[in-house]
């Protein structure tokens, strides 16, 4: 049995300012206005199992606890039930895969006597692959070796001398004999030239792995015993929290920050047939690692300019060539007499960079995260809110509450709130002197929540509830929330 393991813990800093600490790129609808990259990966995994003739199974998602409700909601929207394993801190793919494998080893959907046959297909949640049949064929080509304990990896045949990817080299039998991290331009060009003289040996590392669970754990215990022991103990003490699996955080504190390539695959490549690779030819793979990579998926006009997302309605070019514009702010943006620029405009920040600096954007994201207190758009388990205008002594927000969503029963010490319903149906709950009451508001109706009032809000209707919230008071930060009761288990 193959179980998809979706790695959704990445930070996506090189797609800042659209990808942020609060909502990294895998949770964004970058390529499909209706589905995020995570959702596309989940659907891809379902399709793969169908192509392989296997019944549907619950995938395992590994993500940061800060994005747990985003992951759960995006699964719910697809009607996919997943096992969501939470990391308190992302420590790269070795820990993420180890937690997933430890979970599967003890909670496999197979009977205990057959668990050694469980295979995991690890897929990053922040990539795209337009031809799933190619991956299905590659899985079949490696399945016998993987079932015998080999590590399987899928490579991409390079079509240019890329410096942003890790590389692997396989021999004619498919055995991986070497891993190399991101090379300089000269070295990458040498490898590309070597591929043209013979059967492709140098491949980009796609980050998609195929491994028998028990074989992975055995190798982990041999090459990374501290990581094995820590993740084993963390999962043995794991707690179920709503739909989430929370490993114990204590044992993980000393885990090394290692990609699985360095932790296991590089040392294993010295052993005959321990790591095997299959190329994904014409698969449409793209890791969407930076704005340059994303721009290559867009459609250019006659001057080579590309507009993405809502920028199509607000972007104009004059005497400009080979630029990429992505806008989610709604502002009118005009480019005049420039070329080879990346322009990304969001409610929180504006990025203007030369295309050849796309790999360096991550450093700007780290600086922005260090100095930023609150993003404009914030996701919550009940939906989201957007700060429309912060002022001196007041703040205006747009609240979007999904059908069935419920804000916590709460009160504020420093602010009052005025709610106006724009669309949908709001059930407003108040509690005074131990007596709880509710009222239903519809579009164009409003209510006032006085400072100190115990209150909550529910969307019991069938459509999205949209409201405008006007806060007033001397202190308007989000930590002025005293939660008294919360269906999502938040403190």
Could you describe the 3D structure shown?
- Strands 1, 2, 3, 4, 5, 6, 7, 8, 9, 10 and 11 form an eleven-stranded mixed sheet that branches. Strands 18-19-20-27-22-25 form a six-stranded antiparallel sheet, with no helix packed on it. A four-stranded mixed sheet has the order 12-14-16-17.
- The chain is of the alpha/beta class and 491 residues long.
- The protein is globular.
- It has eleven helices and 28 strands.
- The model has no long low-confidence stretch (mean pLDDT 90).
- Helix content is 25%, strand content 31%.
- The protein has helices at 37-51, 68-77, 92-107, 132-147, 185-197, 213-223, 225-236, 260-268, 291-295, 311-314, 361-371; strands spanning 2-7, 60-64, 83-87, 119-124, 151-156, 167-170, 176-180, 202-212, 239-241, 244-246, 275-279, 306-309, 315-318, 324-327, 333-336, 341-345, 350-354, 377-380, 383-391, 394-401, 409-411, 415-423, 426-432, 435-441, 446-449, 454-458, 465-473, 482-485.
């Amino acid at each position: 049995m193959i179980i998809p393991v979706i790695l959704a813990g990445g930070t996506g800093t090189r797609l800042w300012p659209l990808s942020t600490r609060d909502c990294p790129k895998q949770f964004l609808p970058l390529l499909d206005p209706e589905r995020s990259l995570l959702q596309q990966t989940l659907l891809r995994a379902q399709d793969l199992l169908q192509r392989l003739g296997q019944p549907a199974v619950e995938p395992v998602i590994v993500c940061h606890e800060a994005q747990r409700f985003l992951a759960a909601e995006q699964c719910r929207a697809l009607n996919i039930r997943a096992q969501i394993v939470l990391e308190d801190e992302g420590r790269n793919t070795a820990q993420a895969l180890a937690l997933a494998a430890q979970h599967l080893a003890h909670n496999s959907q197979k009977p205990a006597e057959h668990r050694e046959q469980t295979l995991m297909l690890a897929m990053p949640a922040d990539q795209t692959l337009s031809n799933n049949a190619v991956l299905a064929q590659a899985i079949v080509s490696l399945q016998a070796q993987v079932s015998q304990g080999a590590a399987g990896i899928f490579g991409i045949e390079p079509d240019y001398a890329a410096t942003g990817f890790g590389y692997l080299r396989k021999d004619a039998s498919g055995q991986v004999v070497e891993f190399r991290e991101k090379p300089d331009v000269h070295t990458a060009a040498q490898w590309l030239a070597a591929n043209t003289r013979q059967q492709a040996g140098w491949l980009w590392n796609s980050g998609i792995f195929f491994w028998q669970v028990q074989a992975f754990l055995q190798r982990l215990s041999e090459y990374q015993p501290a990581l094995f022991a820590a993740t084993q103990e963390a999962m043995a003490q794991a707690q179920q929290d709503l739909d989430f699996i929370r490993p114990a955080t204590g044992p993980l504190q000393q885990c090394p920050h290692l990609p699985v390539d360095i932790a296991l695959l590089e040392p294993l490549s010295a052993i005959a047939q321990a790591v095997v690779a299959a190329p994904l030819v014409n698969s449409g793979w793209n890791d969407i690692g930076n704005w340059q990579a994303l721009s290559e998926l867009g459609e250019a006009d006659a001057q080579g300019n590309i507009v993405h997302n809502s920028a199509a309605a607000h972007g104009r070019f004059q005497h400009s060539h080979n630029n990429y514009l992505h806008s989610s702010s709604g502002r009118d943006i005009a480019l005049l007499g420039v070329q080879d620029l990346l322009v990304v405009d969001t409610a929180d920040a504006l990025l203007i960079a030369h295309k050849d600096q796309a790999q360096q954007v991550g450093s700007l994201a780290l600086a922005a995260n260090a100095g930023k207190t609150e993003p404009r758009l914030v996701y919550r388990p009940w939906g989201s809110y957007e700060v429309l205008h912060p002022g001196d002594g007041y703040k205006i927000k747009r609240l979007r509450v999904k059908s069935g969503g419920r804000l916590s029963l709460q009160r504020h010490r420093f602010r009052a709130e005025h709610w106006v319903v724009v669309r949908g149906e709001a059930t407003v709950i108040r509690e005074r002197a131990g007596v709880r009451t509710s009222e239903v508001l519809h579009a164009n109706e409003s209510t006032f929540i006085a400072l100190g009032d115990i209150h909550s809000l529910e969307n019991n209707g069938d459509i999205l509830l949209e409201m405008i919230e006007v806060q007033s008071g001397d202190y308007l930060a989000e930590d002025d929330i005293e939660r008294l009761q919360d269906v999502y288990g938040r403190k």
